[in-house]
Amino acid sequence: MPYKWKTPPAPKSASELQLWPHQSLPPKGFAAFIGATFVLIMIPLFPLIGSVVLWGVLPFLLLAVGGVWLALERSHRNAQILEVLTLSGETAHLVRHNPRGPAQEWDCNIYWAQVEMHKKDGPVPHYVTLRGEGREVEIGAFLSEEERISLYDDLLRGLAQTRG
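Given the sequence above, the corresponding structure tokens read:
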């Protein structure tokens, strides 16, 4: 599950929930994929070793491997999102750390905070939002549908337990 309670909710105590997008390709897998792509692209070049044609084809194949590397690296950088929801005392505080740009913050009195699920009206099915202090903010929009449903239940329980 790409979210976890760093400190579990308890009555009248502080708790913290961290959410992040699922990363299907870990760093070792990234290196292995690029290496395998390089080896597979080089196989057709073996018959060309020693000929002038090799030098005409090689730059394009290396460019293809470089393009795959850049695309995967950009995808990984774009997924470097971290959302931290802190429930403490009388405050609910959500911070979204974006891959580029400043962090976005939302504060609300914990007793007025509401968790809502928009089953069909949001940009994704089972869209989860927090409402309070006159604002409604999304939370966990990058999660899968099943994970958002589970998150909704966890947030309801967490707010109820923290309120005591």
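The chain has a mean pLDDT of 90. Try to locate this feature in the token string yourself.
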